[in-house]
TrEMBL record:
Identification of the protein by name: Cupin domain-containing protein
Organism domain of life: Bacteria
Matching InterPro entries: RmlC-like_jellyroll (IPR014710), RmlC_Cupin_sf (IPR011051)
Lineage: Bacteria, Bacillati, Bacillota, Bacilli, Bacillales
Length: 123
């Protein structure tokens, strides 16, 4: 058995003029699926960019916001997720803190990712 750390301090910092967060790559290029565990602190954000693959952005703890092409910030808390299809412009961030499990891959759909059946209306 191995004990593995995925604490924020051991992650890779993504820090530029427009982007700021810390991430651990959990799975990379395994059958075209990538998974990351991300930490966003006060006022950290991921600016508008095009989804390179279908993407499920699951808030594990804390709270933050997500945007689609219409640029309306939609507040989300732990237990909620956003899904963007490949090519969709999107952004995310937080005014407090949040941790996120992000799953990206080709052709994510309700067949291979049943959680997508749990779409919530009213957002």
């Amino acid at each position: 058995m191995k004990i593995i750390s995925f604490e924020q301090e051991s992650g890779v910092s993504m820090d530029s003029e427009t982007t700021k967060f810390t991430a651990h790559r959990l799975l990379f290029d395994a059958d075209d699926i990538r998974m990351s565990y991300m930490y966003l602190r006060i006022e950290d954000n991921i600016p508008f960019h095009e989804a390179q693959a279908d993407q499920l952005f699951m808030i594990v703890s804390g709270e933050g916001w997500v945007c689609g092409e219409e640029e309306n910030k939609i507040p989300l808390t732990a237990g909620k997720a956003a899904f963007w299809e490949k090519g969709a412009l999107h952004a995310a961030g937080t005014d407090s803190q949040m941790t996120v499990l992000c799953v990206e891959g080709k052709h994510l759909n309700t067949e291979n990712m049943p959680i997508l059946k749990n779409a919530v209306t009213g957002y």
